[in-house]
Amino acid sequence: MQPDIKHKVALFDEMRRRIAEANALAEDDEAVIDTADGETDLSEAIAAVIRESEVTTAVAEGLDRLIDRMEDRKNRLRDKAAKLRGVAKWACLESGLTKISAPDFSIRVSIGKPALIVTGEPTLADAQLGIARSKTTVAWDKIELRRRLESGECFSFAYLGNAEPVLTVRSK
């Protein structure tokens, strides 16, 4: 609470008490309250607090809109960065340059891991084999599936796809 309004409320209470005492009226009498209000500036102070609240709310709403726009901008910049990295990867693959050293970073293009492609739904039997997890529903344990496929096991519902080239940039 603002100290100024506390002081004004205390002055209003004292004024109301004195008016009520001087006129032999109850402190909550409407005439006493109206008179105390007329003799103090508490109403104006309360109105000023509400105005400040309205301004603060408007600033907060403006910041919400600004943050939303900045989030959109951040996402656009991240998309642009990803596209630029894609262009660099394409250029490296087209030219055969797999390693580039610059003063501030190095680039390496290599073949990544093959994608795990699962074409079926897991069953409780798959969970018992250790290639799926079971809580209330059964879900594939993709790490275990990948490990087993890489070690040579075959499954009718899953296989490893073609590996995509990966661009790695390391800052120095």
Question: Descriptors for this entry?
Answer:
single chain, 172 residues, alpha+beta, three-stranded antiparallel beta sheet, two-stranded antiparallel ribbon, 5 helices, 5 strands, 58% helix, 22% strand
What does this molecule look like?
It is a single chain. With 172 residues, the chain is of the alpha+beta class. The chain has a domain of 74 residues. The protein is built from 5 helices and 5 strands. The strands form 2 sheets. A 3-stranded antiparallel beta sheet has the order 1-2-5, sandwiched between helices. A two-stranded antiparallel sheet has the order 3-4. The two termini are 52 Å apart.
Helix-strand blueprint:
Layout: H1 3-22, H2 30-39, H3 42-95, E1 99-101, E2 105-118, H4 124-129, E3 132-134, E4 138-140, H5 142-150, E5 158-171
Antiparallel strand pairs: 1-2, 2-5, 3-4
Question: In short, what is this structure?
Answer:
The chain has a domain at 98-171. The chain is 58% helix and 22% strand. It is built from 5 helices and 5 strands.
Shape label:
elongated
Indicate the radius of gyration in whole angstroms: 36 Å
Helix tally?
A: 5
Q: Tell me about the biggest sheet?
A: 3 strands, antiparallel
Count the strands? 5
Helix percentage: 55-70%
Determine the N-to-C terminus distance. Answer: 52 Å
Strand share of the residues? 15-25%
If strands are numbered along the chain, what order do they take across the biggest sheet? 1-2-5
Structural class: alpha+beta
